[in-house]
From TrEMBL:
<feature type="signal peptide">
    <location>
        <begin position="1"/>
        <end position="17"/>
    </location>
</feature>
<dbReference type="InterPro" id="IPR010905">
    <property type="entry name" value="Glyco_hydro_88"/>
</dbReference>
<keyword id="KW-0378">Hydrolase</keyword>
<dbReference type="InterPro" id="IPR012341">
    <property type="entry name" value="6hp_glycosidase-like_sf"/>
</dbReference>
<dbReference type="Pfam" id="PF07470">
    <property type="entry name" value="Glyco_hydro_88"/>
</dbReference>
<protein>
    <recommendedName>
        <fullName>Glycoside hydrolase family 105 protein</fullName>
    </recommendedName>
</protein>
<keyword id="KW-0732">Signal</keyword>
<dbReference type="GO" id="GO:0016787">
    <property type="term" value="F:hydrolase activity"/>
</dbReference>
<dbReference type="InterPro" id="IPR008928">
    <property type="entry name" value="6-hairpin_glycosidase_sf"/>
</dbReference>
<dbReference type="GO" id="GO:0005975">
    <property type="term" value="P:carbohydrate metabolic process"/>
</dbReference>
Amino acid sequence: MRAWSFSLVLSISLASAATFPDPEQGFSNSSILKIRSNLLEIASASWELGTAAEALLELSWPGLSVFNATAFPPPGRLKATAFPTDVVNIANRTVSQRPSGSLSLIANQGSAADPASLGVSVLLANWTRKQISNHDYSEAATDELTYLLEIAPQSDEGAISHRANEVQLWSDFTYMVPPFLAYFGALKGGLPGRNLLQIAYDQCRLYRDALRDDSGLWRHITLGSFEDKTHWATGNGWAAAGMMRVLSTMNHTSDARRFADHQANLTKWIDEILTESWSHQRPDGGLFNVIDDPKSFMDTSSTALIASVTYRMAVFRNDTSLIPAANRALKLVKNNVDGDGWLQNTVNPITFRDPLPTTEHSPEGQAFLLLLQAAWHSFFIHANSRGL
Ligand SMILES: *[C@@H]1O[C@H](CO)[C@@H](O)[C@H](O)[C@H]1NC(C)=O
Ligand SMILES: *[C@@H]1O[C@H](CO)[C@@H](O)[C@H](O)[C@H]1NC(C)=O
Ligand SMILES: *[C@@H]1O[C@H](CO)[C@@H](O)[C@H](O)[C@H]1NC(C)=O
Ligand SMILES: *[C@@H]1O[C@H](CO)[C@@H](O)[C@H](O)[C@H]1NC(C)=O
Ligand SMILES: *[C@@H]1O[C@H](CO)[C@@H](O)[C@H](O)[C@H]1NC(C)=O
Ligand SMILES: *[C@@H]1O[C@H](CO)[C@@H](O)[C@H](O)[C@H]1NC(C)=O
Ligand SMILES: *[C@@H]1O[C@H](CO)[C@@H](O)[C@H](O)[C@H]1NC(C)=O
């Protein structure tokens, strides 16, 4: 009798473990310190700096990131120990170096979109600034918005171009622009703020309409002088991660209820990328550089980014069905960080199609590791609060 009830208890706890899997262990603090300092050493392109700023925010100042209900509005007066110095330093350097006459946060990038990836850090620097008479951040963010909405070329349907000199749509755009538009809107509030939330959503929708195909995955580049029709893993990661930030921003504004339908669609669009990506996961936990092309190569960088979105989505929806895949990915990614804190076996982020030699490093890959750690940690807290 006792043996029977014992096995009943055991099978119940096994069943709940199956529906709510334990998180894999995250990175050690010493590893994160090295990864972070390597990132700061090599991030230099506009999108690398923007992604770095977001990664630092999510990792070290989670209460200020859009994944936290406390994000809006950011507190005007922060104690020195709560002040996001590393994030604001990136915003400060960006705005200080902006040439006069440039609406874009960084001038002459070729990309119409990439500089906007710095916009969230610039807005945060404005809202938390100590010197209240300093309007430099606010003006720089407003100019960037003007550039995106009024100057950058647009497709016939109204998608803002990823490139400055022609209309060309890249999946990467989804991480660079809509999160900034949504954050700007969330801070602005009222009707103008709602309009910006709507535009952020519409840009995600238009990009999905242009890039998604029947596989459920997104192609990399369409329109303009060349195309990349492959399901580039990093591009799918940019799309899913960008939409996740827009979704979480909407969810934490006072207008969230008005955007319930938008949130449901974004959730579906992110989920289709995650589900389809992990259906191609290699036995070692990694993803291929072209997700559905086993003749490409394993890429740790996109594996980290897509795993990070998977942990975020699991918390957002309280749905852990993809956590086993994310755990396998996290384990693989950890095994690919060398003793000096460099991520190995990444794609070359500039060519999209070649592996990077071991002596070279991917700035965005380093940032994805921090995004992964932050997302994992949030899931870890969530899982523990369920008593697991
Ligand atoms: C790792 O860092 C976190 C955040 O700074 C801290 O809360 C935690 O105690 C640290 N863990 C160890 C083992 O030092
Ligand atoms: C939100 O931020 C607060 C303050 O930093 C923190 O205590 C809390 O754990 C965060 N919640 C989530 C879900 O990240
Ligand atoms: C950057 O920081 C310096 C030193 O605190 C300050 O004087 C300057 O105004 C800041 N730049 C911007 C654009 O706010
Ligand atoms: C900058 O911050 C102030 C609050 O200090 C706010 O009124 C203003 O709207 C902010 N600018 C932007 C573009 O968000
Ligand atoms: C935030 O998202 C969750 C998960 O989808 C949803 O249950 C909740 O209603 C959303 N909150 C608002 C205010 O829209
Ligand atoms: C959500 O998606 C459905 C199906 O595509 C569409 O009919 C609906 O208009 C979308 N909702 C919003 C707010 O765009
Ligand atoms: C989240 O999911 C767990 C496991 O399925 C369940 O026990 C719990 O009640 C859910 N929490 C919420 C807030 O829905």
